[in-house]
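Query form — protein Carnitine dehydratase

QUESTION: What is the three-dimensional structure of this chain?
INPUT:
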Amino acid sequence: MNAPLTGIRVIEFCRGAAGAYCGMLLADMGADVIMVDDPVDDISNEYQSTIGESAQVGLRRNKRSVALDLLTLEGRSLAHTLVRGADVVIECLPPGTLARAGLGYDALLAVQPHLVYVSISAFGQDGPRSVPQPGVPALEALRGMLGAVPSGAEPPRDLPIADLAAGLYAAFSVSAALVAAKQQGVGVHIDVPMLGATLAIAALRAGDAGAEAAHRAGLVPAAAMAGSEAGDAAQVDAELSAVTRQRRALADAAGHGKVSPLAVPLPGEGERFGGPSAPWPTFRARDGYFGMDLDVQTHWEAICALVHRVDLLDDPRFSSARERARHQAALRDVLEAVFVLDDRDVWLARLVAVGVPCTEISTYSRVLSDPQVAHMGWVRPMVLPSGETTHTIVSPVRLNGQSPVTRLDPPAPGAHTGDIIAELDAELDAGPGASEVPVDISVRTSSS
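ANSWER: The structure tokens for Carnitine dehydratase are given below.
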């Protein structure tokens, strides 16, 4: 039973860590995961990834690889043949990429009716951000929102939270969909947006700050937030801010609240930031932090020219993305010596002008204000056991375009004890085999 997904075949069409991580999790559970690689791709060359090379290669474990050129008729034909014998397809590409190659969900469903097809993207398959914007970093809204400092004054560690969160949500959703496919004989299209997945896990950390952020973003009415009259919006703001400030002060006094909950200082690093890879590290300007791409060689050359340090191009420590990752601390010191001379917005404007993808450090409130969040409807009301109404981030996953239904609000301890015991008694009275019949608890418990 150490390989419960034995017999399940997964076809992986992915560029990026999120889809590869999902595929690796399924492969670890015994699935036969076949990666569709580009014939001219070489993962040892310069690459665009949110993680380092060794980690990127590690995501290929327990998988097999086939090289297909999907731009050719032969490549697409072979891909269709692969899918005919598959149970799952994972795609982690800009929305519509595979569909234009004749490998979208609707097209593949015709050859494999019970196919579980999961699409992982930055913002989801539809909505105002679903279409990639040239020159705009795909996940700019995510930068720093897991940091405990609401102003974005401190940078996050370069851990690919969005990729990992989306990969986990995708793998879990695929496992659940496989059960339904076996029972009902029909497939499903699963939409996993990295933005929604990251918001969902960040909500566990945000607490009152997240509730305040949702209110300020216009997603939650003031009256619903505080249980007061709508005209008391200013008082609500003041009360929420006071509570949040008090809790943050307590956290700071206890030695917490300074970094992301997932950020653990490396030995000798103190509270310096930066992960094991060079892509999208954060740098300190005069008035705050910003992130930029150091992975692509042309971007690195543009940066060196911008800061008038073309001599760095001859420095062996920074000759490639791999070397820049290995010497990131030294690289940060060299660049920050220049960056601290001007404000963040000045540097962002200069970087955009020379074609280097960059972004300011975002905040939870700013992310919730993004129109994609409202389009997806991720912020929903929730009634606490005390009777108070608050708001939460619901499941970001969509199944055939529909979000899972939140059937029950959080119960008080033991709230359903009577109902559950009654159900157990009824099953015992019915005799052997009765437990094999599914019991719809949701209907009965919703009124208790």
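ADDITIONAL NOTE: The two ends are 38 Å apart (CA to CA).
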